[in-house]
Request: fold
Amino acid sequence: MIETSCISEEFGREQRQLVYSGQGYTTNINVPPPELDTIRSAIKEQWLYRIQIADPSVVSKISKNNIDISKYHLVSADLDHAAMWSKTTRVLPISFFNWFKKSVFCNTLKDVFGLFQISDEENVGWPNIYWRLVRPNEPSDIGPMHRDAWFWQLNNNFPLPDFPFHRVKVWIPIYVEPGANGLLVEPFSQKRTDIRWNGEERHGINKPVLLMNDDELKPILAQTIPGQAVVFNDLLLHGGAVNKGELSRVSLEFTMLLKNS
Ligand SMILES: O=C(O)CCC(=O)C(=O)O
Ligand SMILES: [Fe+2]
Reply:
């Protein structure tokens, strides 16, 4: 059975206005708590499985001490953290996508934005819904401020749908401490025309480099609770905030390729 959401036309119009022509994002679309539990289980399973491959003794330590993914920083020193979490290891399996596409959350997005596909920029063969870990006080776990559109401009090998489309990004906090960690956004920055940046090749991937001084950007930390998504314009400036909390921050992301109407 396909779950249906029960949002009004007006709610949908307001959210689209916020994303496309207002502040550039909305935080009004939430993952219902039971669905957040399912997402947490799926991420934890993939996290543990990857650690099992890297070093089974760390899995024993995790089980014995009942360490949850939000306490990952307690075991990451036993692992080759920098090497083991390439993006493809964090793309959830197709079975997850098959559950997700019938979820209330996914159907709410469809009711607000219309029909969409989720992009497969890692070329794994199914839509890329992937998670991210940001440990406390680890500046190297976050990237600089950017527009997601830059990645698409720099990489012309990303598979595309067979319909005219535009992109909107979805970022969902899974374990987050509001005010201490999460996503930085600059409201209205999708409209800025003064942003200087460059492309640079690193590890065979073209990555954008921001050419702005810190005082030229005005990022704020999105105050979101677990499950409260940030749905944002492809041109919005955003980035990870250095984690000033107690827990490892876990978030989930995907890009909607929305059918132009
Ligand atoms: O979670 C982060 O640190 C960055 C997220 C991001 O860049 C995105 O969702 O596009
Ligand atoms: Fe991004």
Q: What stands out?
A: Helices lie at 9-20, 33-54, 56-64, 81-84, 94-100, 104-113, 148-154.
